[in-house]
Amino acid sequence: MNILEVSQLTKTFGGLTAVSSVDFNIRKGEILGLIGPNGAGKTTVFNLITGIYQPDQGDVSLEGKSVVGSKPHVIAGSGIARTFQTIRLFGTMTVLENVMSGQHVRSRAGLWASIFQSRQQKKEEEQIYQVAEEKLKLAKIWHVRNELAKNLAYGDQRRLEIVRALATFPKLIILDEPAGGLNEQESFELMGLIKTIRDSGITVLLIEHDMSVVMNVSDRIVVLDNGEKIAEGTPEEIRANEKVIEAYLGKQEDDF
Ligand SMILES: Nc1ncnc2c1ncn2[C@@H]1O[C@H](COP(=O)(O)OP(=O)(O)OP(=O)(O)O)[C@@H](O)[C@H]1O
């Protein structure tokens, strides 16, 4: 069963076709890797899925319902969470506060309730705390919950970003280059976290340059080149695919 379906997706910028009639599906519960050499169209696809760009043609549907035309916050609210290439944490808040603040937008207690600290609000506050605790433990950064986010090691900051996204109960999480800037050990830990997320029932779309990470964690991989899908398959199939090898050899041999 598919959670997300991308069909005939096309986006042009002036005379340049950044994404051209791209089709792929993400199955419920899988880790799908989206890769391609520089300028292949990965970021554009990502922006089309999350509603930052509108496609010129084609469709994106979440659980059978088109999200094209919806604002990014509406798409986020319908169950697609994302992380950013650059870190966007609240540096002067603690780790725990960063996660809890992300969930407050979803809490139901209104203005009167907050003024009078109703029982309902206390209950919600407790639930928010419990979710934050559970997700921080999952990402193995619970022990630094009282540190300011800006004081965390780089790898932990990236994990915290993922936790913030997880705490909004997404059906699908899109990770945008999560291994960027990580050292080998941190990348290894990240791979473990991505698999743990999938095992907890959340579908993952992974957009990533680091080929060893993509090959290691993805159940399936979609490859873009010059805005077009050139291959789709298991990591083994992709590794042996002539078109993929050619696309990478022409551009960034070292990555492959
Ligand atoms: N806002 C924009 N305006 C004009 N051209 C754009 C815009 N965004 C992307 N492009 C162009 O579209 C093509 C695809 O770019 P995109 O950023 O989606 O590729 P990418 O696969 O994410 O590349 P990278 O791995 O380098 O981030 C490139 O030729 C790029 O220059």
TrEMBL record:
Entry GO CC: plasma membrane
Domain ABC transporter: 4-251
UniProt-listed InterPro entries: AAA+_ATPase, ABC_AA/LPS_Transport, ABC_transporter-like_ATP-bd, ABC_transporter-like_CS, BCA_ABC_TP_C, P-loop_NTPase
Keyword ATP-binding: yes
Keyword Transport set for record: yes
Molecular functions per Gene Ontology: ATP binding; ATP hydrolysis activity; L-isoleucine transmembrane transporter activity; L-phenylalanine transmembrane transporter activity; L-valine transmembrane transporter activity
Alphabetic keyword roster: ATP-binding, Nucleotide-binding, Transport
GO biological process: D-alanine transmembrane transport; L-alanine transport; L-isoleucine import across plasma membrane; L-valine import across plasma membrane
SMART domains: AAA (SM00382)
A Pfam family reported for this protein in Swiss-Prot or TrEMBL: ABC_tran
Name of the molecule in the record: ABC transporter ATP-binding protein
Organism of this sequence: Metallumcola ferriviriculae
Lineage: Bacteria, Bacillati, Bacillota, Clostridia, Neomoorellales
